[in-house]
Input
Amino acid sequence: MPIRKRYQHEQVEGARVGRLDAGINTTFIVYRIGSTLIDCGPSNQWRSVREFVAERRVKQLLITHHHEDHSGNGARLARQFGLTPLAPQLAQDKLSSGFYIPPVQRMVWGRPHPVETAPLPDQVVLADGGLLYPVHTPGHAKDLTCFYLPQQKWFFSGDLYISKSLKMLRADENLVQLIDSIGKILTLDFEVLFCPHRGIVEEGKASLQAKFDNLLSLCGEVQGLAREGLTSREISDKVLGPEGWISKLSRYNISKINLVDAALTVDLDRPVTSQVVLPAA
Ligand SMILES: [Zn+2]
Output
């Protein structure tokens, strides 16, 4: 499959790749800032990723988290460009030894090839100049780390954003942590958000704020219906509608009911107080 779409915002370029085009959840955008690559796309799309990286030598590869759509081509890029990818410490064992990927995800993305990585430092000096700060944002995955460039007011969100309104949750996602992480990121000063699924979001901070607000109001609605005596299934059908094909195919590993069950565990009276502390430049 050739590159599906190209993106550009100032010095950032992107290429959307994917075997299936069934919406943003089955395609992936590999971004680069000059010769620094941010995530590397699924392994079954190596041909399109190779076409993209053939245009400009890759000197650095930064990985946001271990998921196969983000890390799949790490080993090939490491070999081709003689580099060691930088990844969150919590991702390193999974990236080097492999990890379980449910069948539906294997069908969409393929399997990543094992790759040795080095841990992301507190700050990264980009190959073409400029500073990038990794910020740990657990919730979607324990290791998810986003990348913040304060000077440009850019934010590379990994899978923190994806959509203004979350409709489903993976069984291994932690909604309480996700809300906390978004709240923490909203204390940063940024404008443009680069999402590997949604695309380039110019009103990035406002969109992330909208996701935060929507999540809290969803939790409020779900908890209100639970107090009226509705079951999780009834609440899910009423608030989010019937489960779609992804839920069924993934055996409810990715489903609406997971989101409802998680929304019941969120303490809405507990304020989000985490802050991002950037190391001195
Ligand atoms: Zn992910």
Remarks:
- The CA atoms of residues 184 and 248 lie 33 Å apart.
